[in-house]
Amino acid sequence: MTTNIKAKQIDRQGAIYILLGILVFGSIWGLLEATLGGFLNLIIFPNKGAIMSGIGMAIMGTALAIHRKPAMLPGIGIVAASFKWLNSWLLFVPANAVQIINPAMAIVFESLAFGLVAAFLMDRITKNALVGTGAGVLAGLVSATAYVYFAVYVTHSPIFARMGITSIDQFITGNGLVQAVFAGILLPLGCLIGEKLAAKSFPVLTHRSLYYATSIAIVCLCWGISVLAVISGL
Length: 234
What we know:
mainly alpha, 0% strand, globular
């Protein structure tokens, strides 16, 4: 009986640990989307979407190397995508506006694509940089393809006219390949960072209450800074 109770406590603690990991890494991704992504969009920086996609892949790679749970990656994407609705809550942009829905779904598609790839290549991604690069390229290309079909056939967005192209094939062979390249470059870097962090012993990790408090503080800080970024016009 005592053994079963201890096992349940360990499982519960493990679930909380994973949940906090999803919230922390998703919030960090969302923060970067709201700040760096908003700034790049403001100055009309070329390939902004591909750059932010690569950064998102790096964040997921770090989380994967630390937690070793591919199933948590879609959750990280959902948390990051939820930051896009700050524009609705703070600036009264309609919640179903394409400028919110499309980038949010792009993040979700990326996390789903990488989660699926990671489910099959988990150990090899974090241990072999070439495999990590290939996984990033594959996930980046798949997510870009899913995004363009969603934007064209679901939200009916005029993305072709805005980008100066005329077809889905042109998007995939242009923007899609650029996104895949950034994902392939930055995913191994994220995995390397995660491996380095996992190998270190941080005092905060040895005290459960301190770890919980630190994780919640990081999440709140990310949301707070993102709110200020959106209000300031990023």
